[in-house]
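Module 6 notes. Inverse folding takes a fixed backbone as the condition and produces residue identities as the prediction. Think of it as a translation problem where the source language is geometry and the target language is the twenty amino acids. Below is one complete input and output pair. Work through it position by position during the lab.
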């Protein structure tokens, strides 16, 4: 009888309608597939049962997180080769029900069932978010979602993010191969935001989703502003407060565990929202924009730094990525940049500048993956093996998504103009480059 690897290659080819572009090594030691390609390691039959009970991305994600599936070779290459067959089949791809009308596909499924062994659904890995009841993006559900992602240990984030502790796209003057460093690029991003906001001594800045305090500290130290930073993460807030105290900035920086919807001590001269709006959700986005507009004084500026997805022909068909929703950012949603601009304008803002920095995020993510991989043993001591595997997969896949223009990231500068229409901006705004 043929080894499990050859049987899997044949079955996957029937199911996917195309040759599998990676090599397979199965639990019985057999191997099959392109000799020079990365190897998909199927460690046990449980991986197949996960795919059968949850066909598609969630089944693959569960198998990866649990360690039932692995990749031997370059992870980026493997993901890139697999993306066209599994993750990026397009809006016109066959549905599972349609595919099962094909006798060959039905035969392949029966073969996979036989190869998988006893038909018991494996329990999801413990790292998968457990859904509560109720509506999305309430204050309570947002606190749970933020805690799932951010309260996993500050030491782990230090390992991944490096000394800058900035968890958003850096701004690279030059890639590392040409002498740039992650720390320099993150400092340059914070300075870019500060210049776009026109920060000057004596102003008040609200940093929405302040993370570990890097933007708040930079703005206070380098530009002399008073800062209120808000986060829903207890661990982030504790870490940020210590950093503020160590910098001697407690008289100018206040870190709160507070929902942005509860901030009521405006007006502020400027608001930074860096990598936070992805958590807001489509149903709440106008509320988010309106709240920030309310908190600004006349002439105040908002810098909204946000990941965007490509628009769909049928926007009603958009659904959140299953792996990201279950393991990374519960309830997170991406919107096209045009939708974001429209909502900001509906809230009353004048949008003055949109800058895409998509390639910068790919460089940033690759650096974070390298940090994680270079100290993998420490990562496994700080978090569960499943959590570390979640991060490695999500960051590597995201880097490819930015490189291939499947998603982007944009900085949107918006102004609450005065009653007379004044923006306070120079005639040429691109003076910060």
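Target side of the pair, the amino acids:
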């Amino acid at each position: 009888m043929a080894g499990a690897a050859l049987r899997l290659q044949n079955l996957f080819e029937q199911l996917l309608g195309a040759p599998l572009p990676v090599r397979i090594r199965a639990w019985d030691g057999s191997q099959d597939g392109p000799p020079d390609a990365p190897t998909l390691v199927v460690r046990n039959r449980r991986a197949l049962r996960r795919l059968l009970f949850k066909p598609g991305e969630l089944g693959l994600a569960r198998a990866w997180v649990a360690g039932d599936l692995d990749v031997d070779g370059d992870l980026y290459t493997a993901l890139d080769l697999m993306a066209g067959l599994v993750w990026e089949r397009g809006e016109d791809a066959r549905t599972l029900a349609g595919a099962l009308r094909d006798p060959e596909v039905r035969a392949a499924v029966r073969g996979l069932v036989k190869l998988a062994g006893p038909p018991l659904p494996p329990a999801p890995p413990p790292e998968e978010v457990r859904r509560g009841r109720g509506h999305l993006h309430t204050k309570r559900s947002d606190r749970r979602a933020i805690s799932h992602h951010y309260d996993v240990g500050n030491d782990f984030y230090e390992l991944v993010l490096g000394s800058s502790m900035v968890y958003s796209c850096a701004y690279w003057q030059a890639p590392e191969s040409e002498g740039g460093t992650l720390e320099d690029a993150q400092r340059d991003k914070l300075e870019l935001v500060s210049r776009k906001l026109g920060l000057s001594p004596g102003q008040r800045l609200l940093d929405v989703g302040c993370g570990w305090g890097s933007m708040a500290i930079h703005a206070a130290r380098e530009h002399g502003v008073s800062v209120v930073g808000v986060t829903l993460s207890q661990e982030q807030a504790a870490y940020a407060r210590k950093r503020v105290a160590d910098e001697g900035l407690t008289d100018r920086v206040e870190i709160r565990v507070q929902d942005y919807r509860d901030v009521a001590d405006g007006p502020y001269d400027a608001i930074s929202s860096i990598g936070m709006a992805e958590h807001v959700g489509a149903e709440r986005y106008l509320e988010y924009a309106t709240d920030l507009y309310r908190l600004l004084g006349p002439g105040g500026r908002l810098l909204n730094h946000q990941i965007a997805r490509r628009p769909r022909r049928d926007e009603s068909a958009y659904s959140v990525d299953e792996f990201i929703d279950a393991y990374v950012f519960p309830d997170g949603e991406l919107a096209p940049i045009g939708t974001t601009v429209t909502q900001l304008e509906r809230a009353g803002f004048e949008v003055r500048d949109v800058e895409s920095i998509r390639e910068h995020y790919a460089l940033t993510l690759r650096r974070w993956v390298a940090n994680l991989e270079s100290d993998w043993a420490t990562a496994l001591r700080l978090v569960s093996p499943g959590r570390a595997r979640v991060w490695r997969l999500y960051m590597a896949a995201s880097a490819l998504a930015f490189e291939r223009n499947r998603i982007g990231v944009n900085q949107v500068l918006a102004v609450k103009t005065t009653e007379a229409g004044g923006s306070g901006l120079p005639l040429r705004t691109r003076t910060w480059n």
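Reference fact for the lab report: The chain is about 45% helix and 15% strand.
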